[in-house]
Amino acid sequence: MAEKNSSTNAGNESLLFLTDEQLRKGIEAMFFAYRGFTADPDRILEGMDYGRAHHRALHFIHRTPGNTVGNLLAILGVTKQSLNRVLRTLFDDGLVEARTGKTDRRERLLYLTEKGRALERALSDAQRARMRAAYRAAGPQAVQGFRTVLEAMMDPEMRRRFTGMAEGGQ
Amino acid sequence: MAEKNSSTNAGNESLLFLTDEQLRKGIEAMFFAYRGFTADPDRILEGMDYGRAHHRALHFIHRTPGNTVGNLLAILGVTKQSLNRVLRTLFDDGLVEARTGKTDRRERLLYLTEKGRALERALSDAQRARMRAAYRAAGPQAVQGFRTVLEAMMDPEMRRRFTGMAEGGQ
DNA sequence: TTGGAATGTCAACAAGGCTGACATAGCCTT
DNA sequence: AAGGCTATGTCAGCCTTGTTGACATTCCAA
Q1: Per-residue pLDDT tens digits for A17-75
Q2: How many other CB atoms are there within 10 angstroms of residue B72's CB atom?
Q3: Residue B36: is it exposed, middle or buried by C-beta count within 10 angstroms (0-12/13-18/19+)?
Q4: CB-strand contact B54/C, under 7 Å
């Protein structure tokens, strides 16, 4: 059955999951799942003047209030010009506010307003609902594996950042 | 509004993976992992006149040669105008060729040329290498869980299509 | 006081989505 | 044979979200 197999592991059952065919299936699963993953928030956003970029900004401002612009840039991995276009509309619409940094007054610390929290909640509720359904359907053991593989797939820099984030839960 | 835990499962160890906090971590893991997932092919593509859209087309033409345009549209979930822009450049550059359908001559069956196969291979080798490393690091059990959760996260229509695809290998 | 850091902003551009409208070829039913 | 539907292509125009480059402001720190 293993049609193609770039490694020299033919006959080794324990490495079956590393055949090119299995890897290809994993790649496609990632592609289709990511589409599902973003579908619900996208649906909410369409019609509003916002898009996925706004969602991402809201998400990360929500999760670490008081973050600086530069930090958000690093997390999102875009240019400041891109982020700024997004932030400007969020400021203008009163979803996000910036407070001047106390120690370094050049910094602008970002926070959601009540209105911003409301939209963030709507978006993340939708996304969490899908994630919850998937988790529930798959079971705790599968979820554990899911998280393990995803972490292994990140760029090392992002993995460091990710596993470092709010580690102890809370 | 239950900040941390929208369900009424406080104290239930087996459902800990369904807390909002866990779900949020899953969401972010998806975000960061997808970035890693696309990073290597993106790096290869940049500089060429191609982008992620070309990669996707090449991938699915490779995996089911002789597919029709309409079928590819359904898989990729884009408009024919978008796909056509991509396909045109791939035709022009001799990476993809279209043969007229035998039973229905309106259909154009898509195939990679040798040149197309070469680029597809370069891209997919890079992507598989990362996937393989992640799989290897995580182990077979985790991979099983990974796939289970991803499938549960797809839209039902896509899940049907995905699980139906080339099931027994081929 | 001066250099560099953090931030904002303007302008121009590209990729890759989208819609709408229209054209052609070929299949199918009447 | 005719008309209708299907598969595909194409033109034109628009949007979002990314990019570079250049430049201004404010403020920390040596």
Answers
A1: 899 999 999 999 999 999 999 999 999 999 898 999 999 999 999 999 999 999 999 99
A2: 20
A3: buried
A4: yes
Q: How far is A67 from A98, CA to CA, in rounded Å?
A: 10
* Interface touch B127/A63, C-beta < 8 Å: no
Interface A:B, Cβ pairs < 8 A: 205
The token pair that represents A4 in the structure block: 């193609």
Question: Which two structure tokens, joined as six digits, stand for B88?
Answer: 């045109």
Q: What residues of B are in contact with residue A39 (Cβ under 8 Å)?
A: 155
* Digit-coded pLDDT (tens) for B85-130: 999 999 999 999 999 999 999 999 999 999 999 999 999 999 999 9
Q: How far is B123 from chain A (nearest CA, A)?
A: 12
Separation between the CA of A83 and the C1’ of D17 (whole angstroms): 10
Q: What is the CATH number of domain B24-153?
A: 1.10.10.10
- Whether any strand C atom is under 7 angstroms from the Cβ of B81: the reply reads yes
Tell me phi and psi for residue A98, to 5 degrees. -120, 130
Q: Which of residues 109-148 of B touch strand C (CB under 7 A)?
A: none
Instruction: Provide the positions of strand D that have an atom within 7 A of a protein CB.
Output: 6-13, 16-22, 26-29
A52 CB and strand C closer than 7 A: no
For A29-154, CATH number out of 1.10.10.10, 1.10.3120.10, 3.40.50.720, 1.20.1420.30 equals 1.10.10.10
Q: Is the ipTM reported for this complex over the cut 0.95?
A: no
Specify the 3-state DSSP secondary structure of B77.
Answer: coil
Report the distance separating Cα B125 and Cα B113, nearest Å: 18
pLDDT at B166 over 60: no
Contacts of B2 in chain A (CB under 8 A): none
